[in-house]
Amino acid sequence: MAKGGLVLYSALVLWCCSFVLTQCAPKRARVHHLPGFNGSFPSKHYSGYVTIDLHHGKRLFYYFVTSEGNPSKDPVVLWLNGGPGCSSFDGFVYEHGPFNFEAAKTQKSLPRLHLNPYSWSKVSNIIYLDSPAGVGLSYSGNSSDYRTGDFKTAHDSHTFLLKWFQIYPEFLPNPFFIAGESFAGIYVPTLASEVANGIDTGVKPVLNLKGYIIGNGVTDEKFDGNALVPFAHGMGLISNDLFEGTKRECKGKYYEPRSSTCESKMVEVHEDIKDVNIYDILEPCYHGPSTWTVTANNERLPPSFRRLGETERPLPVRNRMFGRAWPLGAPVRDGPVPTWPQLLSSNSVPCTSDEVASAWLNDKEVRKAIHAEVQSVTGDWNLCTGRLFYNHDAGSMIKYHKNLTARGYRALIFSGDHDMCVPFTGSQAWTRSMGYKIVDEWRPWMSNEQVAGYIQGYDHNLTFLTIKGAGHTVPEYKPREALHFYSRFLRGKRI
């Protein structure tokens, strides 16, 4: 076929797919029902695998929710959870997916699914991707692929995107964004750089990348590591005397203490905060079922704090919280990621339980409905895997953010202001360190006619935003506010 004819044919394919929505989407990937849900989906759902390495049999699993608005025009957003080693079903089940999950009444029954009024699919098409291979329902036929790192993960995810858009070509013209939280603060900018470089060098298909979104994201070990002490002091978790003494002995540098006196002070800090829920300091710390009956309603907190931690989510916020990012002070090194039961038994990551997601995704009928292959999971499905050997080999993300924003890509960095795992104080500091001119001075932003947090805008389309009263996984705590800033950012509107 002549070149002109090929261009015309491609244009016709895209036009036909857009005219009859998802006509080009593979019928075998369509999800028609989900166990636990009664009713019609508000938009079309697809799920399945994309093979990114035929020789190794490396296959990445995705769940794709089309927009409830205008799928042919609304942005396509790739969502990534962190860990490293955690499934993006985390975001689907607990945060901004199309359903709210109600815990099963008995051990033999399934969780009940209800439509989520604050789903991010209200305003966007969204791909939930299990990445890298070995995470969630993604797998490889060669176990060597479970030894990975930042660069390899970004490369594999880029390969996935190129192949995915070939399967769903009708979405190529849509604005494309990459989003994630926690350790996806590494995944997102490294992948965005891969995509941007591919665009610049003419890699096909050409993705319509517009920007990226990161929530409570790991960015730079020094900025993130130095954020804890000021956060703990500002939140009243350590005394003023201890704060001043620690600041004096550590000279304001709390990451990797350089003296025994600094290290001693840091031990005192950790002793004071060790029983606080690291993912939301307002929430009880769940170590077992008995704790729920004692503190589930925050009865020990003053009324103002109870209101600050309230959520409009119609179902209870889950017990906190698997696999967002390693707690500060425990940076990821090259080696096996411990299993979460091991971490729980050693109290390394307290306050955690993910029974609802595990109960649902370990059901055979659910696996069948979402086209999950038997070989993708050996034994029980876990939200966060223990089979990865992960090397954080890309270093600080600040250089990636500088490069991407300087090239015109829009960036939204948001933080739940009660997260102690990746405190907002670190994200606020590193965004300011970029040296960009402030174009939107620190101010409150509003949602539902209430102050929802604070925002500061910089030149080069870089925005830092806090969400008042939210923990590590913002859409889980503040779903209305999260949908508000998300939808406005995607549309390029002032938040």
Brief sketch in words of this structure:
This protein is an alpha/beta fold. 33% of the residues lie in helices and 18% in strands. It comes from Eucalyptus globulus (Tasmanian blue gum).
Overview of this structure, please?
This protein is an alpha/beta fold and 495 residues long. The protein has a single domain, classed as Rossmann fold (3-Layer(aba) Sandwich). The protein is 33% helix and 18% strand. The chain has helices at residues 3-19, 89-95, 150-167, 184-200, 221-225, 228-234, 240-250, 260-273, 289-295, 303-308, 340-345, 355-361, 364-369, 398-406, 424-433, 474-477, 479-490; strands at 30-31, 45-53, 58-65, 76-80, 99-102, 112-115, 125-129, 147-149, 176-181, 209-215, 335-336, 389-391, 410-416, 438-447, 450-458, 462-467. The protein has an eleven-stranded mixed beta sheet, sandwiched between helices. α3 (150-167) crosses α4, α4 (184-200) packs parallel to α14 and α7 packs antiparallel against α8. The model is unreliable at 1-16, 18-22, 288-307 and 319-349 (pLDDT under 50).
Q: Could you name the CATH class?
A: Alpha Beta
Q: Report the count of strand segments.
A: 16
So, the CATH homologous superfamily? Alpha/Beta hydrolase fold, catalytic domain
- Overall 3D form: globular
Mean pLDDT: 85
Based on secondary structure, the structural category is alpha/beta
Task: Indicate the proportion of strand residues.
Answer: 15-25%
How much helix is in the residues? Answer: 25-40%
The second-level CATH architecture is: 3-Layer(aba) Sandwich
Number of domains: 1
Radius of gyration equals: 22 Å
Pfam families: Peptidase_S10
InterPro entries: AB_hydrolase_fold, Peptidase_S10, Ser_caboxypep_his_AS
Subcellular location: Secreted
Protein name: Serine carboxypeptidase-like 20
